[in-house]
Amino acid sequence: MEFFGAARQARRDDKELGKGIWRRTHDRFKRGLDRYHQVLEGVADDALYDQLVGIANELSAQLTQVRGCCMRAQQLRPSDGLDIPGGKLAAVHRSLSKAGNSLAAAAESAAMARLAASPEASQDAAESVRRRAAIVVDDVTEALRLLEGDEA
Could you name the domain of life of the organism this protein comes from (predicted)? Predict the structure, then answer.
């Protein structure tokens, strides 16, 4: 049953995101989010876990924004290849790409927080994750702003 659901989702993604650069950008962000959630599975400290889950929720909310950006960009400049479009959509892609990189860094920082030896070190590490997550949100917000400017 799950196989058919995945196939339906893939067809919907092809229709909404295309098979090119916008799909890859969305999928990369989604993989970073999946990685962050995988890191959470190994956190033994309850206080740290609670902090990292809160950050995970904030990051998860960004996926909807990223998908919306990629869908709108696909409508404006359809892509079936890996060429990055010019103009303002290049800046949109750059912001979304930075968001994906920042999300990967947040997941890495969360993995390091998981290994912290003391509660104080855990707090410092959690703050590092929080700072990196804030960069992800800023990058997604910038992509949205640029995309709205492209439509004006």
Answer: Bacteria
